[in-house]
Design brief:
582 residues; alpha+beta; Chitinase A, domain 3; 5 domains; 6-stranded antiparallel β-sheet; 10 helices; EC 5.2.1.8; signal; metal-binding
Length: 582
């Protein structure tokens, strides 16, 4: 695009021949060449030997035209040609500035039309002629091609070639626009194109940076719209033209594609595309969010997508980790919401853009799907879905062995795991670091038969790294039902007595009374105590392994048997340890 210049309404100096034409018009007319019927021609003979397919306007009285011509006599001898001077004739028709025959011959002509005009003497130079150039009573032949036509009353002509289905805003004065264009003269001669420079033309509208006609032609345009804009020369480059590519008094035709538009005063624009029901929490600054997005320019050209990487974009909101416009646009969103965020360049990548996909001064549009968000200070959220069927006096606590069913999913509904897939309930000892911290917390305080919903933030789940099947920084949603609960043992105990242990424990263990207890006797005795309800092993563990661990603890010299000196209850050991510390 060329810069604007001050237009002028004066006409260029006429060539010598045209000055002579004006002078001779007042001279008396001679008789013309014989008509085909044998008499003299009474009027101009017009042969339209090339007519363009479309003719948006025809030359009328008072129009300004630009045309090329060759002038010859009947014998074909040339007496004048605008081509020889490499200069178009630029003049107003029908006001006496041309010989009458030319004035009449140009009327009704279309741009790019070619005509042959036969001008009889009385409509040309009459009985006097032009000394040394045109003899008296000469019939003149002109081959004319019209290249431009306009009128002082013309305005900018705008034709919409393609209108987008969605138009978020239109161009107004003081807006900054980015557009592509092809520029031609009215006859189709190309003089400039933004496409050859592999970049849009970027400028303010209505601020004097453009020719007046383009300022007017862009107003009201939508991003993605295509327009044809025809600008008369007095709203373009006027009588001076521009360089060697735009001649004086030239009408200009621009085919324009608007890429985007914004105003320096614009803020982030939000459009809710889908809002899930029951939104109880909205994102605020400081939250950590996981979301998917498709990013495009205002004309729909995509530049990035999280879906192409099959991974959410994870970041803190309102902390400066992302462009300011996105920081603003994500706040207030609900989990599961889909929203469109339109970000002006001063809140995105500014005048310089980034990489090879986001040009300078580009408006960015993000279609965002919020997967989840949390705050690093979030606890486990617990919601009771159904209370236990019977009155509950005892609830699950650390150390208890519990069996429970669960369904685990992401907050967007993506199913991850379910105990129902395995048929049997999940088993765990609470407080023993056997399950993620948030699930452990959520199971505590439950009654058998109770159902709960647990929302577990990632710092109480699988953290930033995630786990197999669980994305990093994912908030987890559990639906749990406590199936059973067994009282746990104190920390460090593998077996506890329900009542006081036997007075002489070693004699009870030494079944064959040989003064030593091998593993078989130890195992038989402990199983008998459990069977008779006198004691219980740590729940949730393999009994054989637990009993073997108990034996190992008592076989202090590791000789495969326990003696009376080696045998000690854990309570006695703990008491001795206290005395030692004291």
């Amino acid at each position: 695009m060329f810069p604007a210049v001050s237009p002028s309404h004066t006409f260029p100096r006429l060539p010598l021949l045209q000055l002579l034409l004006l002078l001779v018009q007042a001279v008396g007319r001679g008789l013309g060449r014989a008509s085909p019927a044998g008499g003299p021609l009474e009027d101009v003979v017009i042969e339209r030997y090339h007519i363009p397919r479309t003719c948006p306007r025809e030359v009328q009285m008072g129009d300004f035209v630009r045309y090329h011509y060759n002038g010859t006599f009947e014998d074909g001898k040339k007496f004048d040609s605008s081509y020889d001077r490499s200069t178009l004739v630029a003049i107003v028709v029908g006001v006496g500035r041309l010989i009458t025959g030319m004035d009449r011959g140009l009327m009704g002509m279309c741009v790019n039309e070619r005509r042959r005009l036969i001008v009889p003497p009385h409509l040309g130079y009459g009985s006097i002629g032009v000394a040394g150039l045109i003899p008296p009573d000469a019939t003149l032949y002109f081959d004319v091609v019209l290249l431009d036509v306009w009128n002082k009353a013309d305005t900018v002509q705008v034709s919409t070639l393609l209108h987008p289905t969605h138009c978020p805003r239109t161009v107004q004065d003081s807006d900054f626009v980015r557009y592509h264009y092809n520029g031609t003269l009215l006859d189709g001669t190309a003089f400039d194109t933004s496409y050859s420079r592999d970049g849009t033309y970027d400028t303010y509208v209505g601020s004097g940076w453009l020719i007046k006609g383009m300022d007017q032609g862009l107003l009201g345009m939508c991003p993605g719209e295509r327009r044809k804009i025809i600008i008369p020369p007095f709203l373009a480059y006027g009588e001076k033209g521009y360089g060697t590519v735009i001649p004086p008094q030239a009408s200009l035709v621009f085919h324009v594609l608007l890429i985007d538009v914004h105003n320096p005063k614009d803020t982030v624009q939000l459009e809710t595309l889908e809002l899930p029901p029951g939104c109880v929490r909205r994102a605020v600054a400081g939250d950590f969010m996981r979301y998917h997005y498709n990013g495009s320019l205002m004309d729909g050209t995509p530049f990035d997508s999280s879906y192409s990487r099959n991974h959410t974009y994870n970041t803190y909101v309102g902390q400066g980790y992302i462009i300011p416009g996105m920081d603003q646009g994500l706040q207030g969103a609900c989990i599961g919401e889909r929203r469109r965020i339109t970000i002006p360049p001063h809140l995105a990548y500014g005048e310089n853009g980034t990489g090879d996909k986001i040009p300078g001064s580009a408006v960015l549009i993000f279609d965002v799907h919020i997967i989840d968000f949390h705050n690093p200070a979030d606890p486990v959220e617990i919601k009771i879905l159904s209370p236990p069927p019977e009155t509950c006096n005892e609830t699950a606590k650390p150390g208890d062995f519990v069996r429970y069913h669960y369904n685990c999913s992401l907050l967007d509904g993506t199913k991850l795991f379910s105990s129902h897939d395995y048929g049997d309930p999940q088993e765990a000892t609470l407080g023993a670091n056997k399950v993620i911290e948030g699930l452990d917390t959520g199971l505590q305080g439950m009654c058998v038969g109770e159902r709960r919903q647990l929302v577990v933030p990632p710092h109480l789940a699988h953290g930033e790294s995630g786990a197999r099947g669980v994305p990093g920084s994912a908030v987890l949603l559990f639906e749990v039902e406590l199936v059973s609960r067994e009282e746990g043992l104190p920390t460090g105990y593998l077996f506890v007595w329900h009542e006081d242990p036997p007075v002489n424990l070693f004699e009870g263990l030494d079944l064959n009374k040989d003064g030593e207890v091998p593993p078989e006797e130890f195992s038989t005795f402990i199983k008998a105590q459990v069977s008779e309800g006198k004691g219980r092993l740590m729940p949730g563990q393999d009994p054989e392994k637990t009993i073997a661990d108990m034996f190992q603890n008592q076989d202090r010299n590791q000789d495969g048997k326990i003696t009376v000196e080696e045998l000690k209850l854990k309570s006695d050991e703990d008491q001795e340890r206290v005395h030692e510390e004291l």
